[in-house]
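Task 17 of the worksheet. Students: predict the tertiary structure of the chain below and write it out as structure tokens. Keep your answer in the requested format; marks are given for formatting as well as content.
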Amino acid sequence: MTDRREHTLSVLVENRPGVLSRVAGMFSRRGFNIESIAVGTTEDPRYSRMTIVVLGDDGDVEQVTKQLHKLVDVIKISELDPAEMVERELALIKVSADRSNRSEILQIVDIFRAKIVDVSDRSLVVEVTGDTDKVKAIVDLLRPFGIKEIVRTGRVGMARGPRGVEGSRRAVQGLEAVGAGS
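Model answer:
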């Protein structure tokens, strides 16, 4: 029996057109479904960080990591340990709301330290930020009121402490040193 679980990969890449497509295509060619992907520019605009969540066993993820390393624009790949990472997700949830249920919804929003970001006669838009479990929990509690729409960013994460930042800087500095010697 295989031990399939979620793996969170932090991938530092060159910030160039087509990189996201090449990375996603590699997962697709290998038959992996990306559960979540979030991409954004790092503190250095020449580089982007992808946070990719994929379901598989350790061997599957090792194969994917090896294939990612072969892509020219990939600089560094780290699998984030759930016990040693900070993760967040943002969700916007449009929920049916009228006079009869609005106060109950507001109580749920308050308990989760979420925010109301839009109000209309028949709905509220709730913004919630937190780990995946927190987002799932508020969605489950709001579902009985009638969720009209949900938009989620996907998980972003980084290693706790200095390890992730220093590792990225070393990888980039090493890449720059190689480029300078050319």
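Marker's comment: The longest strand covers residues 85-96. The chain has a mean pLDDT of 89.
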